[in-house]
Amino acid sequence: MQDAIGILLLPALGSLIAAVFGRSLGRKATSYVTVGAMALAFVWAVSVFLRMLSLPPAQRSFDPVYWQWIKAGSLSLHFGLLIDPLSAIFLLIVTGIGFLIHLYSIGYMHDDANFQRFFSYLNLFAFAMLVLVTADNFLFLLVGWGAVGLASYLLIGFWHTRPSAVSAARKALVLNVAGDVGIMLAIFILVMTLGRVSYSGVFSHISSLTSLQVELIAFLLYLGAAAKSAQFPLHVWLPDAMEGPTPVSALIHAATMVTAGVYLIARAYPIFHAAPVAAEWVAGIGAFTALFAATIALVQNDIKRVIAYSTVSQLGYMFLAVGISAYAAGIFHLTMHAFFKALLFLGAGSVIHALSGEQDMRKMGGLKKFLPITYWTFLIGTAANAGVPFFSGFFSKDAILGEALATGHFWLWLVGVVAAFFSALYIFRLFFLVFHGTYRGDGHPHESPPVMTVPLVVLAIGALLGGYLAVPGAWNLFDQWLAPVYSRYPGGLLPAAATAPNWGAIALTSVLVLAAVWVAWNLFGRQVREELPEGLRPIHKVLYNKYYIDEIGHAVFVWTVDRLAVLADLFDRVVVDGIVMGIAALVKGWGEALAPFQSGYLRRYGLAVLIGGVFVVAYLTLV
Amino acid sequence: MVPISYYLILSALLFSIGTVGVLIRRNPLQMFMSVELMWNAVNLSFVAFARQYLNMAGHVFVFLVITVAAAEVAIGLAIIVLVFRNREHADVDELNVMKG
Amino acid sequence: MLSSVVFWLAAAVAIVGAGGVLLARNPVHSALSLVVNLAALGVLFLLLHAEFLAVVEILVYAGAVMVLFLFVVTLLMAGTKTPKEEHRFRLAYQFLLAGLFGFILLVLVAHVMLGADWISSLAGPNVGSFGSIAAFGTALFTQYLLPFELTAVVLLVAVIGVIVLGREHGANR
Amino acid sequence: MLELLFFLPIIGALLLLLLPERAARGGAFIAALLTLAVSLVLIPSAFGHSGAYGMLSSVTWVEAWGVHWALGLDGLSLVLTILTALVTAVAIAWTPARPRTYYVLFLLLEAFSLGTFLAADLFVFYVFWEAMIIPAYLLIAGFGGPRRAKAAIKFLIYSLAPSLLMLVAIVTLGYEAFLQFGSWSFSLPVLQHLVLPTSVQMWVFAGFAIAFLVKIPAFPFHSWMPEAYAESPAPVTAMLSAVLSKTALYGFLRIALPLMPVAAHRFAPALGVIALASILYGALVALTQRDGKLVIGYSSLSHLGLVLLGIAALSYTGLEGAVLQMVNHGIYATALFLLFGVVEERMGTRDLQAMGGLEARGPILAGLFLITVLTALGLPGLQGFAGEITILTGVYLVQPVWAWIAVISVILAAAYFIRLFQKVAHGTAPSTDQPGGRPEIGGMQIALVAPLIVLMFVLGLYPNPVPRAVSRPLKSVTQSVGVAATTRATATSEVAGK
Fold it and tell me: Which of its termini does chain A have fewer beta carbons within 10 Å around, N or C?
C-alpha cells in the first residue's frame, strides 16, 4: 500500500498545475487536469479498496512511512499514512463524491471569470481532506485539519467582492482555527504524557494515563471536532458558508470538511472509550444539535440555508452515534449523508442555476415541470434526508436511534426521534415550496446541462440504494467492513444485543416521518400559507433568527476581543510610548534648561575653562 | 644667581596676564597675541627647568612649541582673515552662531 | 650679580610688554608690546644658557610671527568697525571674573613655587656644554628625532590648511 | 573561509564605491549572492570538528585585554548565517533605483550581522553588535518615510542605551576570567569554564537580557519598533525584523543561557512572563492597526515573543523549536514586508481601510501574499506551523500554563492576518491606486521572492534539517543550563505508527 500516497498527490498536483499554469492552459485544459486528477484518484482509491477486500479482514491495515518530518527533543515524528478500512471509506467518499462535484462544477462555474482558480481550490480542498483522513498520527491529522480550514476559507470567500462572502470566510476560518487549537492542545498533552502522537502509539498506551488526562484530551479533541463539524454552539459558521458557490457547499457539507469531526472521534475511539464523560457530552450535544438545527431549518426561506441547517442537524445524529460508541452506525450515516446531501446541494445548485441565482424559496414553486431530472433526483435526496422508509437515510438514521435506545440512552433517543420528525417536515417543506404549487418568480427556468445532471443521477442512485448495505435484521456489510478497525482496541464494538433491530422503534419513527410528510404536504404542497397564526409568530421570529446565537457569540467574543484589542492599542500609545516619550521629554527639558549656558560667547567659554582650571589647580596644590 | 622659582613666578605672572588677555579682549587678533603670551610663559618655565636639571629635553620642547605656535598662528590668522572678510567686523562676541 | 640685575631688568620689561598687550586699545600697539615682551624673554633665555632658543625666539617670534601679525592687523584695520557700545557689557562680570580668577591662578602657582624645596638647591654655575648649539643639535637629532620629524608634518599640515582656507574663499567668489 | 564570509560583503561595499551609480544594485546583489554561496559552501565544515565549533579561527587582537579576533561556525551560527545571507540577497535587489549609499550600507549591515552570528569572542560580538546599529540607523534616517528622523533617533537611542549595560556585563565577565584564570579573556569557549557566584550571574544576565529584549523587541521594550518599522523602506524593515531581531535571540542562546545558567533559571519565569505579554499584546494590538505594515510589525512582536517563550522554557525541545521558528520567522517576515511593500507602492497607501481589490487586479501578487500570510499564521503543513508546534510542545513539557496562554495567540494570529489579507485583497481598489500603473508584481520580484516561498513549503513539509543542524550546539546549551536533554518522556525515538 506504499502507493496510496498517489491518491493524495494527484489532487495536490492538479491544484498546483491549475494555480500556476491555469491561465495559460485555459479553462478546458484546466478542468481536464483537475477533474481528471480526481477521477484518477477515485480509481486509485477503488483499487486500494479492492486490494484490501481481497485480504483477510485482520490484515486490512497498512501504515506506510515516508520520511522523518521532525525530530526536536521530545517531539519526533515521521510522515506516514494509515490505510485501513475506516480511511478506505473516506478515501472513496472524498474522491468519489468529490469527483462528481468537480464534474458538476464544470457546468455550474462555466461563466465564472476565475474558473481556473476555483478548480485549483477544489483540488486543494480534496487534497487537504485526504491528508486528514489518511494521516497516521495526530500531528498530520492537524496538518490536514488546518489545510481543510484554509481551503474552505478560500472557497467560501471565493466571490471576494461580496462583503458577506468575505465575512463568512473569515468567520469560518477563525472558528476552525479555534478548533485547531483544541487539537493542538490535545497533542501537547499527548506529547507530554505519552511522548507520542501516532494513533497506534497513543491508543495502545491509553491505560497509562489518568482518567482526568484522558477526559481532558477527549474534550480538546472534541473541541476541534465540534468546530469543524458545526456542533452547537460552534455551528454558526456553517450556514454562512453557503456564501460560496453551491458546489463548494456540496463539497463542504457532503464529502469533506464537516465529516472530519465525526472521523476524528471515530478514529480516536479508544480515547473516547476511556473518557466516558466526554463521550456522553459528545452524544448529548449531538442530539441537542440535531433537534436545535432542525427547528431552525423549519422556517428559513433561503434554499441553501435550509439545507445547511439540515446538515448541522444530521451531523448531530452522527455525533450522537459516535458519542454512544455506535461508531459503525455513525460512519454509515455519514456515508449515506454524503450521498444525499451532495445530491440535495447539487440539486439546489441546479435550481439556482436554472433561476439565474435566485435562492429565495418564496420566489420558486412549480419547478417540477421545468426541471424534471432535478425534480426526480431531488425527491430521492429529500426522501433520504427525511428518513422515509427504504431510502438510505432511513436505514442509517434508524441504526443510530436503535442503538441509542439499546444502549440505554432513552432521552437521547427521544430527542433524536423528535428531530427526525422535524427533519422530514423541513425538508419536505423545502421540496414542496420549490417544486410544487405554482411558479412565483419571474425568470425563465431551464433544465441544467448534462454535465450537471449526470452527477445528480449518480448520486441519486447512491442515495436510493446505499442503505441496503445494512438492512436491519438481515445483513450489515458496514459493520463487517469496519469490524477490524473497531476490534483492535477495547471499546470499539457494541454488544451484539445493541445492534439487533428494535422493530417497535423503527415503526414509530417511520410513522412519525410519514406524518411529517403529510403535514408538509398539507401546509406547503397544495398552496403556500403566507400568514402565520398569531401565537406562533414569536416562535417563528426566534427560529428565523437562529435563536440569536450569532448575535450572542458576536457580543461575547468578537466584542470582547475588539475591546481588548482597542485597549491594548491605547495602552501601547499612551502608556508604553508615553513613558518613553516622557523620558525623552525629561531629557529634552534638562537640555533646554541648560541650553542658556551654551551662550555662544567664546570668551565665556574661555572663562569657564579658566575657572574650572583654577579649581583643578587648587585641588592639586591645596588638598 | 637668581633662583629658579623667580623665573617660574615670572612665568606664572606672564601666563596669568595672557589668560586674562584672552578673556577680556574682544578683538580676535589681540586674543591671539595673548595666547602667544601664554605660550611664551610656558616656554620660559621649560627653559628654566632645563637649566635647573641640566636637561636638554626642555629645550627641545620649547623648540617644538615654537614650531606649533607658528603653525597655529598661520592657521588662526587665516581664519580670522576669512571671518573679517565675511562679517566685516572684529568682535568675537558677534560670532555666537553656536548659541544653544 | 650682573645676572641678577639683568634678570630683574628683563623681567620688568617682559611684564611691561605683557601689560601692553593686555591693555592697548589699538592692536598695533598690542603687537609692538608683544615684540618687547618677546625680546625680554630672549634675554632671559640667554641668562638660562639657552642661546639657540634665544635666537630662535627673536627670529621666529619677534621676526616672522609678529610681522605676520602686524601684516594682518594693518590689512584688516581698514575694515574693522569699532566695537559697538551696547555690546560692551553684554558679558556681565567678564572683566571682574577673568581678573579675579587670573589672580587666584597666579597666587596658587606662586604659592607652590615659593613653597617648593628646590628654591634653595640651585644648580651650580658650572654647566659644561649645556645649552650649547651642539648639545641642542645632538639632542634634537638623536633622542628626539621622531618628534622633530613630526613637527615637519605639523608645519606641512598648517601650510596646506592655510592654502585651502585662502583658496576656498577665492573659489566662492 | 570564515573571514571570507564576513569580509565578502565589506569588500563588496568598498568595490561598490568604485562602480557607477546605476551598476550599484547589480554589484550589491552579486556580492550578496557570493556571500550566500560561501555560506552554503561552509555547510559541511560546520559539523566537521569535534570541538565546540565546527570551524574556529582566532587571532590575538588586543593582547593586553585578552581580546581575540575569533570567528566560529557551528550548526547554530550556520543556520542563521545562511538566513542572513539569503534575506539580504533578496532584500537588497528588491527595490531598484536607490542611490549607491543605500546598497553600501545594506552590505555593511549584512557584514556586521554575520559578524554577530559568527563571533566566538564576546568583545568581537560587542563590536559587531554596536557596529550593526550604524548602517541600520543610516538606512532608516536616509531612506525612510516622512517621519524617518524621529524613528531613526528613537531606534538609535533604544539600541545604544542598553548596549552599555551589555558592555558592563561583558567587561565583568572578562574581569572574572582575569580573577579566575589569571588573564583577561572574552573568548566564549574559555568563559564556558567560569564558575560565577550567583549574584554576579544575576547582574551580568540582566545586563545582557535587557539589551537583547530591546533588540528583539519584547514587550514593554518595543516602543521603538512601530515607528522604525513603519518609516523604513520595506527591505530595511525586512532586515530589521528578519535578521537584527535574531541577533538578540541568538545572544540568549549563545551567551546568556550557557554562561549564566543559574541566573537563567532564576530569570526564566520573568522572561516567560515578558514573552507571554509580548505574544498576547502584540496579537491584540495587531488586530487594531490601520497601518498594514504595523500589523505585520506587531505580529512579529507576537511571534518573536513565542520564540522567546521557547527559550525561556529552558527545555531542549523548546530551544530547538525556538531556532526553527527563528529561521521560519526570518523567511516569512521578509516575504511579508517585501510583498506588502509592493502592495503599498501599487496602491499608494498603507491604510488598510483604504486598500482593497488586489485579488482582482493583481492575482499573482495576491496569491504570493496569501501563501506568506498563511505561513505566518501557522497553517499546518506550511513552515510556520512546525516551529510553532515544536516551541509549544517544548514549553508545554515544562510550563503547561504558559503553553495554554500562548496558544490563544494562534487564534488571534488567524484573526489579524486574515483581516490583513482580506483588507488588502478583497473589496474594491482604492482611489489612491496608481493610475495607469500595473497592480501586479514584477517578474524580477517574483524571481526574488520565489526561493522564500519554496522554502515555506519545503520547511513546512520537511523541517527536520534545521533541528538536526542545531542539535549539537543546543545540547551543549542545555547541558550548561543543566536541563536534561529530554524531560519525562523518554520515548523520543518513536517512529510514528510503528
Answer: C
